[in-house]
Write a structure and sequence with these properties.
It is a single-pass membrane protein. It is built from 24 helices and 17 strands. A hairpin with a 2-residue loop joins strand 15 and strand 16. By secondary structure, it is α/β, with parallel strands linked by helices.
């Protein structure tokens, strides 16, 4: 695929340096070396775009063939292999006589909601109201630098860059599918429709997931719109309260909303302290990162996760800038570090929750233990069955360790040098050769060395690390998010919106009749800690990288490819998803003064039996769980009027109770 170039600009108008076209003729004459380098980059980009285009074309071709089949064909083939399939939850519950009762509100998580262009620069000509995020992602491989420029926010304000406006897509289509053939909310929506739900009883609370939560109100009045829509749904459905279903980061967003709606204007919505009890029956949180996720740390620190580290191990250099000349990771880091919402996912509670140098709540987890295979509510363990094995204890509290040996030895053997007093040295490279600026370019060799010499970082020191390596990002983040534990929740400072999405620094609403569920998958290896190394110095490089060569072997099977795994849903560790409902909010506590009833519903992961099952109906993975039949059935029953007790109370497969008891938190 050839990358489209724009026509040469008229002599009266110079091309903007940030646009993705080439230089004008005068610039080419003045800068022949720079022009040669850019021509090489465009050649590499043409090749890269052609390759990505081929992949996308193949994907669309197979999708066309699949959609061209009779609707019953995949089911017919599957039943011929595995026998009759069970009814979908909506069909099953319709036969039981369940009908529409409570309106439902969906709150999507990070990256799953579509964003469309309302105003853009010249390179985005012809894309008015086209999706730049979600859908086919066609513009990503047609004009990648233009796409990055428009998806990024302003690095100083965290709001729109000059001349660019991306806005969330509205309606159920905002997040029913992330991309063609990849469902998010679509399966749940379809099953609710089976018992009579439609758009007047379903509402997608779409928001710009890049922004800090309070800025969604400042820029778009999104929180006000959610408040008005919920009030309208209650009023037009006979006064029946809504059932709210947030997913992933949407859980934190809705926590923020519940405090915002109670708080007086201008900071809050002015709904009063009884708004939630008047309008909300239940909040059914799916894949909730209540206490953050270590995965967010790796993403902010080095733009990596387990999959990236594994890919680098199998094909060294393929993902690095030297192959395509695109500096892909640098562009992605620059882009994502403008998204303030990512800071809501940094682990909360420090060492008290996540563990210190020599302990962690999940330290006795056995990665080699066989898990339960039954996802039946009638046989699930209600008390949590231990999985203590004979493998070596893992120091999960060391979220980042520089070197495999550092992750393993006792803390008194680690020689650390405090990095915070280190003076950032001269620039690492000639920044004029960089396509994408990152804050690492200002650290200097001494700054990079100081970070590595500190050796190990726990949840208590991760914030200091991020302040050091990403000061602009964290300066914005400090104004919108907090990650600590409140000493006194009656302190007036906790009335500020920066605390509202942290369950350890805020109180639940005064709504004793409301129910809160945490619903998440278990049995999927989930990122918990990382082994890092320094990368060889190069132009425009990211100096830190997960050490994919670090393996635990049979002695420590939790360490693979530089990543320590624990039980969870592939993204959110059980500790983050389950602790608040297992202990922090259980009963009447200082975090739950009105005694809102809480329920834990775990879904033991079972992969699809064959390819025709797609992503499976018993998946516990973070997004695929949205198609889990047992979860969908739980949601429909509550929407139709059931309570947590009607569902059978807690359903627990993991060690969440045991791990929660190890956390010494004042309640």
């Amino acid at each position: 695929m050839s990358f489209p170039r724009r026509r040469k600009a008229p002599n009266t108008q110079k091309s903007e340096p940030h646009e993705i076209d080439g230089e004008n003729e005068d610039d080419k004459k003045r800068n022949p070396k720079t022009n040669l380098r850019k021509d090489k980059r465009w050649s590499c980009m043409d090749s890269c775009c052609w390759f990505i285009g081929c992949i996308c074309s193949i994907w669309w071709f197979f999708l066309f063939l699949y959609n061209a089949m009779p609707a019953s064909f995949p089911q017919y083939v599957t039943e011929a292999i595995t026998g009759p399939l069970p009814d979908h939850p909506g069909v099953k519950l319709l036969k039981e006589g369940l009908k529409v009762k409570h309106p439902v509100v969906f709150v999507p998580g990070i990256v799953t909601g579509g964003l469309e262009l309302w105003e853009g620069h010249q390179c985005a000509e012809g894309l008015f109201r086209k999706r730049l995020w979600g859908g086919s992602f066609g513009e990503l491989y047609k004009r990648p630098l233009c796409w990055v420029e428009h998806i990024s926010l302003d690095n100083e304000t965290g709001l729109d860059p000059s001349g660019i406006r991306l806005r969330p897509v509205s309606g159920l289509v905002a997040a029913d599918y992330f991309a063609a053939g990849y469902f998010v909310w679509a399966v749940l929506i379809a099953n609710l429709a089976r018992i009579g739900y439609e758009e007047k009883t379903m509402y997608m609370a779409a928001y710009d997931w890049r922004l800090s939560f309070q800025n969604t109100e400042v820029r778009d009045q999104t929180l006000s719109r959610i408040k008005s829509n919920i009030e309208l749904m209650v009023a037009t459905n006979g006064g029946k309260k809504v059932v709210v279903i947030p997913h992933s980061m949407g859980v934190l967003y809705f926590l923020h909303f519940m405090k915002w709606v109670e708080a007086p204007a201008p900071m809050g919505g002015g709904g009063g302290l009884d708004w939630c009890t008047k309008h909300i029956k239940a909040v059914m949180n799916i894949g909730a990162p209540f206490l953050g996720v270590p995965k967010a740390v790796a993403g902010l620190f080095s733009m990596e996760a387990k999959d990236v580290a594994i890919a680098r191990a199998f094909a060294p250099g393929v993902l690095d800038k030297d192959v395509f000349g695109l500096q892909t990771f640098q562009h992605m880091m620059r882009m994502t570090r403008t998204w303030d919402s990512t800071m809501s996912m940094i682990p909360k509670g420090g060492d008290t929750i996540w563990g210190g140098l020599d302990w962690s709540p999940e330290g006795d987890f056995d990665c080699s233990a066989k898990k339960l295979k039954n996802n039946d509510t009638q046989t699930a363990d209600q008390s949590g069955k231990g999985t203590l094995g004979t493998t070596k204890r893992v120091n999960y509290g060391r979220i980042i360790s520089f070197g495999k040996d550092v992750s393993d030895i006792h803390s008194f053997e680690i020689k650390r040098v405090d990095f915070q007093g280190a003076v950032k040295g001269n620039n690492l490279i000639n920044t004029t050769k960089c396509d994408a600026w990152t804050e690492y370019q200002e650290m200097g060799i001494e700054g990079v060395k100081a970070v590595a010499d500190y050796k190990v970082y726990t949840a208590g020191s991760i914030l200091d690390l991020l302040h050091y390596v990403a000061p602009k990002l964290m300066a914005r983040g400090d104004a919108h998010f907090s990650h600590g534990i409140a000493d006194n929740l009656d302190d007036p400072k906790y009335e500020h919106h920066k605390y509202w999405s942290n369950p350890l620094e805020t109180k639940l609403p005064n709504a004793p009749d409301m129910e809160i569920y945490t619903m998440y998958g278990v049995g999927v290896p989930t990122e918990r800690a990382y082994v890092y190394k320094l990368t060889p110095a190069a132009e425009c490089y990211i100096p830190f990288q997960i050490d994919a060569s670090a393996e635990g072997g049979s002695e420590n099977p939790c360490l693979k490819g530089g990543v320590f795994s624990v039980d969870g849903d592939e993204t959110v560790p059980i500790l983050s998803a389950g602790f608040m409902c297992a202990k922090g909010w259980r009963g009447t506590t200082r975090f739950n003064p009105s005694g809102i009833r809480t329920y834990i519903r775990e879904y033991d992961h079972a992969p699809p039996a064959n390819l025709l099952e797609g992503r499976g109906t018993q998946s516990g993975a973070h997004v695929d769980i949205m198609g889990n039949f047992a979860l969908i059935e739980d949601v429909i029953r509550v929407a139709a009027g059931a309570t947590g007790e009607d569902l059978g109370g807690d359903r627990v497969y993991s060690d969440i109770y045991k791990w929660s008891e190890k956390i010494k938190l004042q309640l």
